[in-house]
Design goal:
This protein has 375 residues and is α/β, with parallel strands linked by helices. Helix content is 40%, strand content 17%.
């Protein structure tokens, strides 16, 4: 029996952690039970990976590192020492664990882990979710074996020596495979209800949540909401709107988001790369509100890619005080334009030869020489 040993480095937010989990879970299914898979995640105490450590399904090793502050030079004085210390610890982890490869999926934890893996001459792979790559990806792209791109547009921002493959972004295998009516019964809805999904992300989207809350009275009786508020805003929204939304359909965060995607007709969401990948996998059109402070405005670029293909409508954060997201979503569903948007997102989905997680797994196993790697 052969053993596949991998280290995954990606976290801080769900947008970095969940792609790593999707890849790990898919590889584990591919390898076992004929062979053994032993995977280790590396993260930080302040990231979402630590809060979810009991449900990850994999060992989590913590290192001490943080990102650069955008403002306040003095606050970054300790950054080099933290980075060096975390890189040395990552090298020690690689030495002890002896992974076949190290896979980074973003967040500030990825930097020292990938640098340590490069120094230790391990197989190294990066999965870059955004149309504008993160700083660590830009710096290390030409030093790793391959960078898997969520958006082909990211390639132009990377060193010309980098090996890149556009795969799309990996999501849970089950997204897009849940029965619609079964999912609606899960939330207590009728089969003929119109359902709008609001995604606040793992951290929340306060301006989006506030707009929904302010216009909740405009929701017709035959429309239902599934509302993921994010942890930061949950208590306030639950107190103000819990009775109107329903206990099963209002939550801070869930690791069973596939049920929500299956039940919905339309989503209202930020345009993080993972969210768009999940919308694509679910075949769910959306109203997208890019987070205005994202690095290099990458959420706007992500959203405009979907809008240009007819799969989404984009509204900017500064426009929220003047619009009603609920009214706009209701109109999209009432006038039937959501159907054309769904056709567009289905075209995006079917244009890919295989799901991103499968394509990434194929390439990793092939590049490290794992026998029988192709499905």
């Amino acid at each position: 029996m052969k053993q596949l040993r991998l280290i995954f480095a990606g976290g801080g937010t769900g947008g970095h952690l969940f792609p790593a989990l999707a890849i790990a879970n898919h590889l584990k299914k591919r390898i076992e039970p004929e062979n053994r898979a032993e995977f280790r995640f590396i993260g930080t105490r302040r990231g979402i990976e630590f809060r979810l450590k009991d449900s990850l399904g994999y060992s989590l090793t913590l290192i001490s590192v943080r990102g650069l502050y955008r403002k306040g030079v003095l606050r970054n004085l300790l950054f080099p020492l933290l980075l060096i210390g975390a890189t040395i610890k990552s090298m020690f982890i690689c030495w002890r664990f002896k992974p076949d490869a190290v896979i980074g999926t973003g967040g500030y934890v990825m930097g020292p882990v990938m640098m340590g893996a490069v120094f230790m001459r391990k197989g190294c792979f990066i999965q870059e979710q955004n149309s504008y790559p993160g700083l660590t990806t830009r710096q290390l792209a030409h030093r790793v074996d391959c960078v898997f791109l969520g958006f082909g547009e990211a390639r132009k921002h990377l060193d010309g020596r980098a090996v890149t493959i556009e795969t799309g972004n990996p999501v849970k295998d089950i997204i897009g495979k849940i029965d619609r009516n079964e999912a609606r019964r899960h939330f207590g809805f009728n089969d003929n209800d119109h359902v709008i999904l609001i995604l606040g992300g793992s951290q929340g989207a306060t301006s989006v949540n506030q707009n929904i809350l302010d216009h909740l009275h405009e929701l017709p009786n035959d429309f239902k909401l599934i509302w993921q508020t994010g942890e930061r805003d949950y208590k306030e929204i639950a107190a103000a709107a819990g009775g109107r939304v329903g206990s099963r359909a209002l939550f801070a965060f869930t690791d069973q988001i596939e049920q929500a995607y299956a039940a919905a007709d339309l989503a209202i969401a930020r345009s993080g790369a993972l969210t768009l990948a999940e919308l694509e996998a679910a075949g769910l059109p959306a109203v997208l509100i890019p987070y205005p402070h994202a690095t290099a405005d990458h959420q706007r670029k992500n959203a405009e890619t979907f809008e240009s293909k007819g799969a989404a409508v984009v509204i900017f954060d500064h426009e929220l005080p003047e619009v009603s997201l609920i009214k706009g979503a209701v109109e999209i569903i009432r006038d039937g334009s959501w159907r054309k948007m769904k056709e567009a997102i289905d075209r995006i989905r079917t244009s890919r030869k295989k799901p991103a997680v499968e394509a990434i797994a194929d390439e990793i196993l092939s590049m490290i020489g794992w026998e029988g790697s192709r499905t």
